[in-house]
Specification:
mainly alpha, Ribonuclease iii, N-terminal Endonuclease Domain, Chain A, 2 domains, three-stranded antiparallel sheet, 62% helix
């Protein structure tokens, strides 16, 4: 695999073997004799990402409480945010996937893209050092913090949808979870119900991720629908 274009995009020369390993999904590893995949590098990169973002928020957001800082951090290191960055970098075309994963759209899956970005941070730490991996976070992640208020609003859709449903008397919010695949490659599917009616579906690597994505999928539409209805009621009250 020619990774020179990716290195140019990253702006740092990562050891070629480590960079390639950062792009190897476990499905590809399984089909090629169990070669090292990117999971251990992802574990390392996740720690780098968390530390750098936490330190940055502590220094730049002195007026936020611990809870607010946590929500802001969680939003910027979320799977959705990291996948957005990975798409900008073009990581999908570089992923090494098993045939089945590739055929089912693995190159566009948020979870795989986010994992690969974190694995690249880990590979960068091992081959070039902490400051280089910090530089990648500053280059690709910090721009997401340009609008911290918007990020905070998006950080916890499960809590927001519960609060919104309660405030507007929409009924109980519940989730039903199913899963597919073996233990080492399990995918969870969440269906979100409001007042007993299915309103959104999503999938994720964990139950929480699937539930969060389902909540995020319906939240904006739900808020717009309720607010529009309220506006119409207020208008009718004014003209009658």
């Amino acid at each position: 695999m020619n990774l020179s274009a990716l290195s140019t995009t990253l702006g740092v020369e990562v050891n070629a073997d480590l960079l390639q390993q950062a792009l190897i999904h476990r499905s590809y590893s399984y089909e090629h004799g169990g070669i090292p995949n990117n999971e251990r590098l992802e574990f390392l990169g996740d720690s780098v990402l968390g530390f750098v973002v936490t330190e940055h928020l502590y220094q730049t957001q002195p007026d936020l409480s611990e809870g607010e800082l946590t929500k802001l951090k969680n939003s910027v290191v979320s799977e959705k945010a990291l996948a957005h960055v990975a798409v900008q970098i073009g990581l999908g075309e570089y992923l090494l996937l098993g045939r089945g994963e590739d055929q089912t759209g693995g190159r566009n899956k948020a979870s795989l893209l986010a994992d690969a970005f974190e694995a690249i941070l880990g590979a960068t730490l091992l081959s070039v050092g902490f400051e280089a991996s910090r530089g990648l976070v500053e280059k690709f992640i910090f721009p997401l913090l340009a609008d911290p208020d918007a990020l905070r609003q998006q950080s916890d859709p499960k809590t927001r949808i519960l609060e919104f449903a309660l405030a507007n008397k929409l009924g109980a919010v519940k989730y039903e979870i199913t899963h597919e695949g073996p233990d080492h490659e399990r995918v969870f599917f969440a269906t979100l119900f409001i007042d007993g009616k299915p309103r959104a579906q999503a999938q994720g690597k964990t139950k929480k991720a699937a539930e969060t994505e389902a909540a995020a999928n319906i939240l904006a539409e739900l808020e717009a629908t309720v607010l529009e209805a309220k506006g119409l009621e207020e208008y009718r009250a004014r003209v009658t």
